[in-house]
Structure formats: C-alpha cells, structure tokens
C-alpha cells in the first residue's frame, strides 16, 4: 500500500505539472462545475492540496510559495489546519490583506501564465482574473485540472439515483414553473437560458438527489428554450419512473458533459440568458462570439426564494418535528450532564437519533456543529472523533444543526448551559438573545432589504464594542441548500451582488447573531423567520416576521435586568408559543421541565 502524500509533497507534485506547462501561478478554488457552496468528495481539490477542510477558500500556488484565502468564519480553523504546511493564510476582508487578483498582479512575472480549471471558476471571476493577467501581459491556461493529475486516489464523481418530489410537497408542478421561467425569458428577449446552479435545477424540475452530502441535488445542467428543455445529466441515475416523468414534461436527456458542446453550437441569431456568477468560465468561453448574452441572476433564484402556501405550511410542520427532536435533545443533555459520559460526538449521535424518530426525516441539512467551550469560538467547528471532547458540567455547549424533511428544511442553533457561567458569559449571552429578538420582532416598510435591518441585531453587540465576522442570517432552501439567496441579513454590501434583495412575503431567513471569543467560548442563537405582510396604511405596506423555530432559549444564561421591558415581553411571548407547540408531544417529565424552561421572566 502506497503511503498518502503529505501536503508539501502534493504541492511539489503540482508544481512539477505547472513547470511542464510553464504556469507561474495556479488557482484552486472551493468549487464544483456549478458554483455550489458545498461540494462532493470528487471536487475537494483545494482541501486535497492544502489540508484546509473549511467549506470556503481558494488556494494560490506559486513556484516557491503558496497561500490560502478564506473568510472570517474560518480564520481560527485555517490557522490550525495550515500549521506546518508552509501555506500562508490570507484573511480575506481584513485590513491590508490584498484580494486574489491584486496578489496575482503583484506576483505574476511579466508575460507570465496563470492557470486554473475553467470548469470550476465562474465566468465573472474568470474575466476578472484574465484582466489582472493582461495587466502583466500574461496568458491563461484553463483547459486542465492539474490537481486531478496529481491526485491519484481521487474519489469517483458522484452518481446517486435521482428521485421525484411530489407536488404535495412542492405546491407547484414542473410545467407551471417552466411556463413562468419562459415568460421571464420572453420578457428579457432571450431564446436560450443556460442554467447550471444545482438547487435551481432541482427546484425547477421537482427532482432531488444525493450527489452532495446534506444537499439533495443532482449533478446536472439545463438548457431551456421556448419549445425545448435539455437536461445534461449522468443517465445511469435515472430509473424508468424518472424517464417517464421527464418525457411527460418534454424534457430531453443528454450526457452530463455535453453542455460544453451544446454551448458551442448556439446560433449567432439567438440570445442567451445566463448568470455569469454561476455559469463556468469554460462554458462561457465556448459560446460563439456573435451570440448576444444577457447576464442576470437566474430568474429561478427569486422564484424559489418566495415559498408558496404549500411550502410554508409544510415547512412549519418540518419545524415542529425538528423542535420536538431538538427540545428532547436539550432535555436529555441537561438531565444527564455530569451523570454519564457525554462527548461532542456522542451528543451529535443522540440528536441525529432523535431526528430520525420524526416523520418524513431525510437527513441532516449540514454537518452538525457541536462545539464545547473554546471550540465554539470557531464558527464552523467540526468535532473530531479521534480526539473526542468530553462535556463537563460547566460552561456552554453550542449546537448548530438542521434537518431535511419531506416537508422542508430546518436550521437552528442553541447555546446550552451545562453548568456554572461567569458574569461576563451571561452578559454576552443576554446581548445575543436581545440581538436575536430585536430582529425577529422588526416591523418595516415593504422595500427594505436585509441590509436595512441588520443593525437591529448588531446594535446590542456594537454597544459592547463587539461584532461577529459573518452575516446575521441567510435564506433557507426548501429541501435544498440550507444557505439560499437572494435574501440575507448583513450590514455590508456584497460587491458581487450589490442589488440587495427586497424582503418579500414568503421568504424564510435565519436570524443568528453571536459572540465568538477566541480561546474562551462562542454563543449563537438562531431561529428562522418567515416574512409576512402586516398592516397597510397611508404610509405603505408594512412587513413583519413570524418565528417558525420552536425551541426554548436557555434562561439559565439570561440576565433579565439587562433586558428592557419590551425585550422581556418578547422573550416571554416566544416561550409561550414554544410551550403551546411542544407540550403535547413530550412525556410528563419533559413537559414539566419545558414549563420551567419557558417560564416568564
């Protein structure tokens, strides 16, 4: 058996391939052919070449050095995982840290060559990279995956069976969705729409799969015309039921990789609608030069973000099932801590077992974050079974988890008190609770975006001179990616998406402020909010949120005197709803405990 190469050996092998092609700098992003947030094992090239396991980051490999760019969620994790590799950490967004294009302009020799796999870099970024290279009089090499050449034991490309999601769960047929999409294409005078975003394809076709862990999608692409819809997919994943369904909806099956050939054959008389932030640089380069291209967000992004009445009713049912499991888990944890051995990993296993007892449970919507003590300061901490951390009867345990059910997708974080806390821990927990409630009970005029409202959550923390290096909340997919756009809560405008989405009735967005103190602890409280219409008067249409997460917030860490009357009333009101929702699904001991957990303060 051949021993696995070290990170330094992998980098050496990659540089040999770069040298053969006279490539000076090689980029390895965290991406598949579809710009998915999470990727399957086959696409974990950046993880393979750097050892960094976070879900976001880009490796930049030079002849003599290497760097990894990642964002604030992963600074602590990346620092640890890159230790000893010789790879420099670039903290994206921090003061005096260059962007990737800036670094390329600085480091690329005159007339030099930048390489990357054009299939895993989106067209927008690819053009920016090309522009940076041209400033140095250089060239691009984009037709090969060099990491794939040196990665000898690379996992196979996933090809899991696809399955239908019935209309009782989706609330709208594929024909109806295609009709709406084609109307939008007409409005934009587009003859062809290239769609490569996996969640958009799954939503449009009412099909789900298992090609990405925790994201029920199928590796595929679509090309839609007014009179045709071609699905580029691995044919072995389709059974007869699926083939019959596709034929009924006039969807033609084509080989997965043929999208590149088909793009090259688009007529110059046609107009193409695509999202250059999700369509790959490779596909974009193959579209004939004379074709008119309309670049815009995929129309399906906003369509699927606004949940229909069936999806909303089903999602609330999913949240009820999830709340039963999570509340039972917190009860189990609170009553057994200090009495039996519990670790981060055994706690994860218990929570998963309780979810599996619920009707319609499919699986986790992301890898559970179960972080005890100082581990919780890492926003995306992953418990290590090889060094499983025992839970003690003291401090905080942060558990961020979620589930996919046939009725919907959930995402919830609770920071649970296991034992004695310091005064400062309680103060910070109370501030996070206030932040969460301030946003959840917002009333605002229609037209506001998440950027308009984010301050409501950050204010209690900013008053303490504190902040968290991430957004306050994200949209949630319907049995799709747990992180979904375009709706989000954040205070900074994203340069790649400056048109902050208006919050529409039917959108579901998380509310998850936090405190993260390196080496000490982390606190996060997360609920999901359904946007709804409120009163309408001479000033316009007002909007509000309905909290659809039904799990108690730990009162053992709350300092009531640090909350004003309105904040206490809101917390009491939330807990009344929690008790009413859950009481009938718990046994007598659990119900008695829940009554105490939801007591008025």
Task: Write up what this structure looks like.
The N and C termini lie far apart (63 Å). The chain folds into 3 domains: 144 residues, Creatine Amidinohydrolase, Chain A, domain 1 (3-Layer(aba) Sandwich), CATH 3.40.350; 142 residues, 3-Layer(aba) Sandwich (Creatine Amidinohydrolase, Chain A, domain 1); 292 residues, Creatine Amidinohydrolase (Alpha-Beta Complex), CATH 3.90.230.10. The mean pLDDT is 96. It has 601 residues and is an alpha+beta fold. It is 34% helix and 21% strand. The chain is globular. Helix 4 packs parallel to helix 5 and helix 14 packs across helix 15. A 6-stranded mixed β-sheet has the order 4-3-2-1-5-6, with helices on both faces. It has a 6-stranded mixed β-sheet with strand order 12-11-10-8-13-14.
Tell me the domain tally.
3
Number of helices: 19
The CATH class label of the largest domain is Alpha Beta
Beginning-to-end CA distance, first to last residue: 63 Å
Produce the secondary structure layout.
Blueprint: H1 7-20, E1 25-29, H2 45-50, E2 58-61, E3 66-70, H3 75-81, E4 87-91, H4 100-107, E5 113-115, H5 123-134, E6 139-141, H6 146-150, E7 163-164, H7 167-170, H8 174-187, E8 192-195, H9 198-205, E9 207-208, E10 220-225, E11 228-233, H10 240-248, E12 252-255, H11 259-264, E13 271-274, H12 281-286, E14 292-295, H13 299-305, H14 309-336, H15 344-356, E15 361-364, E16 369-372, E17 396-401, E18 403-405, E19 408-409, E20 412-417, H16 423-440, E21 443-445, H17 450-462, E22 473-475, E23 484-489, E24 508-511, E25 514-517, E26 521-524, E27 527-537, E28 540-547, H18 565-582, H19 588-597
Parallel strand pairs: 1-5, 3-4, 5-6, 8-13, 11-12, 13-14
Antiparallel strand pairs: 1-2, 2-3, 7-9, 8-10, 10-11, 15-18, 16-17, 17-20, 18-19, 21-28, 22-23, 24-27, 25-26, 27-28
Helix pairs in contact: 4-5, 14-15, 16-17
